[in-house]
Amino acid sequence: MHLNVPFPILRWSIRHLMTRSSQTCSWRRNYSFYRDEVKSLRAVVNPDISKIRNIGIMAHIDAGKTTTTERMLYFSGYTRAFGDVDDGDTVTDYMAQERERGITIQSAAVTFDWKDHRINLIDTPGHVDFTLEVERALRVLDGAVAVFDASAGVEAQTMTVWRQAEKHKIPCVCFLNKMDKPAASLRYSLDSIKTKLKANPILLQIPIGSRKSFTGLVDLITRQKMTWQGSSLTYDGHAFETSALQPSDDPDVLQAVSEARATLIEQVADLDDDFAELLLGQYSESFDAVPAGKLQEALRKVTLARKGVPVLCGSSLKNKGVQPLLDAITAYLPAPNERNHDLVRWYKDDLCALAFKVVHDKQRGPLVFVRIYSGSMKAQSAVYNINRNGTERMSRLLLPFADQHIEIPSLSAGNIVLTVGLKQTVTGDTIVSSKASAAAAVRRAQQEAESKSSSQRESSSLVLAGVEVPEPVFFCSIEPPTLAKQADLEHALNCLQREDPSLKVRIDPDSGQTILCGMGELHIEIIHDRIKREYNIETHLGPLQVAYRETILQSATATDTLDRTLGEKRHVVTVELAVHALMESSTSCDVTFEEEVKTQLPAVVRQAVENGVQSAYLQGPVLGFPVEGVKTVIQHVSLEPGTSAAMVSACVSRCMLKALKLAGGQVLEPVMALEVTVGEEYLSPVLADLAQRRGTICDIQSRQENKVLLATVPLAEMMGYSTVLRTLTSGNATFSLELSSYEPMNTQEQNILLNKMAGLA
C-alpha cells in the first residue's frame, strides 16, 4: 500500500517517534517546516516598473510587524523556516540588541517576488525613540501596510506613523492582526480606525470563527471562502482551501457576507463616481451582480486617491491571512510610476535617486540605501551628489535582504538598492548621473517655470526633499575608558551619527566633555551598547539630563561697544538692539534690521551681525540652553574701517546676552504626551503616581476590558517610569511617550532646577 504523506508531516512524525520515548520533548513552534529548496535572491523577478511595489510595514509596538514580514518571506519562498521574534531568529531583526529585546530598532529592507510582482519591503520600528527610522523609510516608499492588534485597535504609535504616512501622501492597506486573541474585535478595530485616524476603512474580508476558533476568511469581493486547517505545530499555513460560498454554508456567515458586501459596494460607489455610474447604469436591478474585477478596479482607484483604506484580517503568528494580504499589496498599492514626483520629469531618463539611510559595514565601509526615481544605476560608475556638490564612484551595487546582500550589475528606476563606495553621501542627499545632467534638469525646470510665470517656486525644488530630523530631548555626557581611546570613540560617534541623524554629538564649551543627545532613554542605551559591541569601547555615560529650552518674559534694549587692538589693528564696533518675546506658541527665533540700518550696512557686515545673533540664541541667559520664541531687531551698528567680521559677531553676541538678561529669562521644559493602557483594577495607583509627577490627565478611555489613560507629563518627571509602572501594576500595563510641546516652568520648579544645576540641591 502506498501512502501519500506530505513531506513536512512525515518529517514531523519521524521526529515525534524518535523523541517520544524520552518524554522530555521541548517543542519549538516551527522546527518541522524546513524547506528543501529556498529561492535565491538572484532569482527575484525584474519586471516592468508597473509590477514593482515599494512598501513599508508600520505599526505600534508588538502589533506583529516583524512576524508578518517573516510570514511574507516564507510564503514567497525566500526563507527555509519561520523566524520568531521570541526566539531571536528573524530575518529583519538581525542586530544583537533587537534579538535580545525582541523589538525592531533599525528599519530593514528585504526584496522578494509574489506572483510576477517584485516587492521591496521595509520593516520599520514601532518604538517612539526610533520615529526617524519610520520617517525616512516612508519618505522613499510608495505604499504602506498598517498592522493593528485586533484586540487593541488604534494605539498611540499607530497614530504617529499614520500621521507620517499622511504627510508623505502614502496610500495604505490595513491588516488587523491577532484575530485569534481572546479580546480580538473586528468592529472595535474598525471604529477606532474611523474615529482616531479619521480614515475611511473599507472592509474586504470577514473572519470565519472568532478568537481561538478563528479558522479562515471570506473575501467579500469574490465571495470566496478561505480556510486554514490544522494546529500550529503540524501546519505551516502554506496550503489553504479556497471555495465559493454555497447556500448550504452557515446561515449566519451567509447573512454577514451579504450585509458586508452591500456595505462595501455602497462605500466604493460613494467614493468613486465612475463606479457609481456603472452601478446605476448596467447593474441598477442588482448591485450585488457587479463583477469582482470592476469592484477591484474601483477600489484600487479609491485607495490610490487616499479616499479610503482597504482592511484585511488574519493572524500572522498562526500563519493565517498573509497570502491574501500579499495579493492586496499587489492589487491595491501603487507602482512607482503611479506616484507623482514633479522633480523626476525634469531628469527624463537620466539617473535621479535619493539616499535615505547609511549603515556601516566593517568589511565594505559605509553602505548607502538609495531609492532610484528615474534612470538606472550601474556598478563601477561615477555619480554626482547635488547636496555635497561632489562626484563619487560606486564600486558595487547590492540587493538588500536584511543583513544578507547579493551583488548585482545594475538596477532600474522604481527600485531600492544598496551602494558600496559612496564615502561622503548621507541621509537626504540627491544623487544624479553627472553635473551636466543636473544642469540640464535646471534648464528644463526654468523653461517650464517661465511658461508658468512662477520661476522662483518651481526652480527651488531641484533637490529631492530630505528627511525632517526631530530635535533630541535627552542628553548625557560620554567618556572613553582612557585618553588613548578618545580618537576611537570620536570615530565611532561619527559613524553612528552618519547612520542615525537623530543622534547629535556636541562638545560642552565649559567642561570640554563630549555630550550625547538622543530621542529617549532607550535610544541612548542602544547607542551605548552599540559602541561597546561594534567598536569594542567600554564607555562611561553620565546621568541622563533633559534638554530644556529658554525664552524671555518681556522686551529689552541693550547697547554694547567692543574696542580691541589685535597686533597693529584696532577694531571698534558699537551695537544697539532690542529683543521681543514672540507669541507663546512660536518656537522660532527671528532677526530683523531697521530699514535705515539695513540700507547702510554692507552685506558682509549684515551677515556677521546675523551670525552673532544666531550664536547668542544657542545659549540662553538662565541655564545656557537654546533660546526660542524671541525676535531681535538691530537698531544701530557703527564700526571703524578695518574692523573684522569676527569682531562684529562677537560684539553682537555680547550685546544679545546683555539684552536677554535684562528681558528676564524663563526656562521651558519638554512636556510629553503619555498614553497608559492599564486594567481598571490598577487605575487608581497609576493616577496617584502621575499626580506626584506633575501630570495633567486629559482623558480616560475604554479599550475592550482595559482603560486608556491620556495625560501630559514633564519629561524630567518620567525618568525610570517603566520600572515604577511595572511595579504598580504587576507588569499588567504598557505605556508610550511622545514629545508634545515645550511649556514654561512655574517659578518654584524653576528655582529648584536652578539650585540643582548649581549643585545646591
Automatic annotation (TrEMBL):
One Pfam family linked to the record: EFG_C
Domain Tr-type G: 50-337
GO terms (BP aspect): mitochondrial translation; ribosome disassembly
Catalytic reaction list: GTP + H2O = GDP + phosphate + H(+)
UniProt keywords, alphabetically: GTP-binding, Hydrolase, Mitochondrion, Nucleotide-binding, Protein biosynthesis
GO molecular function, one term: GTP binding
SMART domains associated with the record: EFG_C, EFG_IV
Cellular component, GO annotation: mitochondrial matrix
InterPro entries associated with the record: EFG2, EFG_II, EFG_III, EFG_III/V, EFG_V, EFG_V-like, EFTu-like_2, G_TR_CS
Binding site for GTP: 59-66, 123-127, 177-180
Family to which the UniProt record says this protein belongs: Belongs to the TRAFAC class translation factor GTPase superfamily. Classic translation factor GTPase family. EF-G/EF-2 subfamily.
Function, in words: Mitochondrial GTPase that mediates the disassembly of ribosomes from messenger RNA at the termination of mitochondrial protein biosynthesis. Acts in collaboration with MRRF. GTP hydrolysis follows the ribosome disassembly and probably occurs on the ribosome large subunit. Not involved in the GTP-dependent ribosomal translocation step during translation elongation.
HAMAP family referenced in this protein's UniProt entry, alphabetically: mEF_G_2
Protein name (Swiss-Prot/TrEMBL): Ribosome-releasing factor 2, mitochondrial
Source organism of the structure: Cyprinus carpio carpio
